[in-house]
Amino acid sequence: MLNRLSARGKTTSSTVIRVRARCIFFLVMGNKQSQAGHLDAQGRDSFLLQRQDVVDFEKFSHTIDQDAFWAQQAVEIGVWQTTDLSSIANLDMKEYTQRVKLLVRRGVPCDKKAEVWTHLSGAYYRLQQNPNFYQQVLTDVFGARVPDKFYRKVPTFSLAPDAVPTSFEQVVPKHMLTHKGLMSAQRILWTINMYHPEIEYCPTIPRILSLLLLYLTESEAFTVLHELLERSRVQQNQGSTRWHLAFTMKQSLTFTIVFKRLIYERWPAMGKHLDSLGFDIVPFFLPWFETLFFDAVPLHVILCLMGVFLSEGNKVMIRLGLALFKQNKKAIMLARSNDEVSSLLRSKCLALRDVQPVFKLAFGIYLNTEKHTQRKALRLKTAPTADTHPEQDSPTAVFHRPRLNSSSEIIADHHFEAIWSWLPVRFRIQSPQLVFCTSDDGRSMTTLFRKCGMEEYRDNGMVFLIKAKNSMGQVTLIGGFCPTMFRESNTAYGTGECFVFTIEPEEHKYAWTGENDQHIRSNKTGFHMGSGKEGPAISLSADLSDGMSYCSGSYGNTKPLSGGETFFFCLVMEVYSLVSS
Predict the structure, then answer these.
(1) What is the pLDDT of residues 456-471, one digit of tens each?
(2) Using CA atoms, how far apart are residues 284 and 157, in angstroms rounded to an integer?
(3) Which DSSP symbol is given to 162?
(4) Which candidate, 458, 456, 457, 466, places its Cα nearest to that of 527?
(5) Residue 304 and residue 353: Cα distance in Å, rounded?
(6) Has this prediction a pTM greater than 0.90?
(7) For residues 503 and 417, is the Cβ–Cβ distance under 8 A?
(8) DSSP conformation class of 177
(9) CA distances (Å), 105 to each of 66, 304, 425, 579, in order?
(10) Helices 133-142 & 179-195, crossing angle to 10 degrees?
(11) Per residue in 27-59, pLDDT tens?
């Protein structure tokens, strides 16, 4: 039954929530006594040892308020140990679901987070059904050669490609992961990006991932995110507002507008006061909602909030925001400037130590989420300001790493990241298929044309690579791209999308300058790419051995690609056809 409920799009979210909630207690009933039942040094060391290869506990100790964290742990363990789980499991579904929510709101002990979080998200059932789910996804995404390192930008699911950080550390500066943990995070982000191409915008993902990896394995962390994305997709398609993750900037912005509407409806006087000060709720709270309050509240609060978020969805953020305004209403009404309101809200969030009074206030607020739908939010007379999100009109960043089923004799796997970032967008979703290699197929233009002219390849784009050794003994890695395969022709072919490049000693793309249309000319005497100025950018003889490279007018390279020397010897040449993954 659980397997059927976990199938993609086969059930309503409410059914899954009810069933997965009940199974939490089936899991813990037989293991009621927590391993960390007593908060002595041994209990703390057990937590550290279990995750020491992934979690940097020096960062952890400097980031977290240890007294507040372990005090919260004491409360959580006490609640879970004193709860009669068997009696809860026998309740009717409505009362049972409410008791589950109340229990999770009190917090989940460290040694139970992995079990409870995977159950709440549905990941537990997915992995029970298919323990190799993550490995199969990795193979689908990357091919047989799953990368263990990433050298360039990682997907952050935000807009403005030029502003995308180059490392996970820049995306989540307060992370507490070791080098191994960072590699796992980057691999998961790449995998999600390619396995869920429908995501246009979701900066919540990297922050949630940094929390999941504190307690879950790489496989479990990916599966939790996958289940949240699948559930959000189904709920959004059904018109529900109770999703976990937004897929577009519009959804994220609209969610914050709903929150602003609630504030103005509940406390009209405060709304007018905020307007008089020029304080706009939307741009202030948007980054907090997009990151699950990650940079706004202490870590022990975020960890407690995470369980409630997995259990109840995005409405927990609205409740927390409402509680913040309700708790500080008098101080806000006395504020005399925009900056004073901003400082007040930030300081109150950072000063949170005991999360339970805030949660009690937040969940004591009556909130009919179905009443405040996104459609009603869009009818707000007060539109978000132009600077709500500065990059909202920027193009979406495109990340594609090709599936690799074999290694190259010329370049390392990670070099394909650079080449694929240079390709026209429509080719980035395709993968390289080795068609010709001088080591296996010999050095003949006739063989090259025959292999490239095979029916399954001839209409595809291509990337060719050359390992060149110049007269000075320097080895360089060079190549080119063309939207058509090599063919025998006495006239030039190719388009303005063609380019040449170097991989070593430096990665550099030389795009078409527009000076001429002499892209590729190939026949039995050899091939030439580019012309003008001094000559072709890359040229090889009929036996694919002797090569030349000049400063080319077609591509604007100011020196020969082969280490500054015109003549070179081709050690190895490979030609890849770009095929659908």
Answers:
(1) 998 899 999 999 998 8
(2) 20
(3) G
(4) 466
(5) 12
(6) no
(7) no
(8) B
(9) 20, 7, 45, 50
(10) 70
(11) 444 444 444 334 344 444 455 566 778 887 777
